[in-house]
Automatic annotation (TrEMBL):
Endoplasmic reticulum found in the keyword field: no
Highest taxon, organism lineage: Bacteria
Gene3D superfamilies: 2,3-Dihydroxybiphenyl 1,2-Dioxygenase, domain 1
Pfam families in the cross-refs: Glyoxalase
InterPro entries assigned to the protein according to its UniProt record, in alphabetical order: Glyas_Bleomycin-R_OHBP_Dase (IPR029068), Glyas_Fos-R_dOase_dom (IPR004360), MMCE/EMCE_epimerase (IPR051785), VOC_core (IPR037523)
GO biological processes: L-methylmalonyl-CoA metabolic process
Entry keyword Cytoplasm: no
Taxonomic path: Bacteria, Bacillati, Bacillota, Bacilli, Bacillales
Stated name of the protein: VOC family protein
PANTHER family: METHYLMALONYL-COA EPIMERASE, RING-CLEAVING DIOXYGENASE-RELATED
GO MF annotation: an example: metal ion binding
Keywords carried by this UniProt record: Metal-binding
Length: 146
């Protein structure tokens, strides 16, 4: 078995298409504004796709359910980058609005920052912290898996 792609089911298709292409800078490999499906090359052979939520709901028989509810996030897209500050600067320059500031997460071993796409999907950009900045408990857990 092999993961083929991640498909986000969105209600704001055109706004999300623009966001992933123009704001985040991913290369669109399929789809167009006004369409129902688009895909993006997100690096290393991975594909991120967009699909109109209404069409998937019709396909799986959930069209009668609410489109959204106010709840905690069900998932986050995580992108590792080599230069977190430059990535944030570039995305802000292209109009992206971050919902958190860059923060060291010593318990997780990463530096991280978050934003949302036009449909509200949570996106996290990370870079690995040098091990000397890791929390001691993370260092201990890391040793048990080596």
């Amino acid at each position: 078995m092999k993961l083929d792609n991640i498909r986000l089911l969105v209600t704001e298709f055109d706004a999300c298409l623009y966001f992933y292409q123009e704001t985040l800078g991913f290369k669109r490999t399929w789809g167009e504004p006004g369409g129902d499906y688009a895909s993006f090359d997100v690096g290393d052979g991975m594909v991120l796709a967009l699909f109109r939520r209404k069409l998937m709901a019709e396909a799986v028989g959930t069209g009668n359910l609410p489109v959204s509810t106010q709840e905690q996030d069900n998932f986050a897209l995580i992108f590792e980058v080599s230069d977190l500050e430059k990535t944030v600067h570039d995305i802000e320059w292209r109009g992206g609005k971050f919902v958190t500031s860059i923060e060291d997460k010593s318990l997780w071993g990463i530096r991280t920052v978050h934003l949302r796409d036009p449909d509200g999907n949570l996106i996290e950009f990370i870079t690995t912290l040098p091990q000397h900045k890791w929390d001691e408990s993370l260092i201990e857990r890391d040793q048990t898996y080596k």
